[in-house]
User: What shape does this take?
Amino acid sequence: MKHANLRLRTFVALLLVTISCFGQKPSGGSGVDWRALVQNRLPLYGHRNWIIVADSAFPVYAGPGIETIVVNDDLPTVLNYVAKAISSSRHVRATVFLDKELDFVEDLDYAGASELKKQILSTFSKEQVSSIPHSQVLSKIDEAGKTFRILFIKTTATIPYTSVYMRLDCGYMSDDVDRRIKDRMSKAEKAEHDTK
Assistant: This one.
């Protein structure tokens, strides 16, 4: 009886370890080949997926569709690679959000803040970038994470509000074209309704 009880406890312990290992999202330190991971995820991602290149204090989200990796590279290196990968893909483009608070982070408080801001902004065209309060960006991510996959890449950056949030949109359709399509659809529905 003692041996059977011990075997059962051993089996349960091994089962719990196995379940916890398989249930974890991929994450890791400098051993993670983050470039390969980005290249692997990008063809899968589409309109409404997100890729965030984050500072080192960014929290790990608990949502099932949110993947977080930790890399031993600086933010500009990772950001440049991810931005180029997105811009060279045919199917997606990035709409970029920055924390509005970044406009008020100064070298007096964080040495190198101005240079890092300059590097972040030089990665994108002005039309791609919107600055909104940090809490609003987090709300967008919280909402998107309920339905869509999100990849966080935590870098070695130690200046606050430097995370760059890239929402992926359809690469072969502009916002203007989408508006025209929806406008035509609305007019057609109105005309159909008026003829009834």
Remarks:
- The radius of gyration is 22 Å.
- Confidence is low (pLDDT under 50) at residues 10-27.
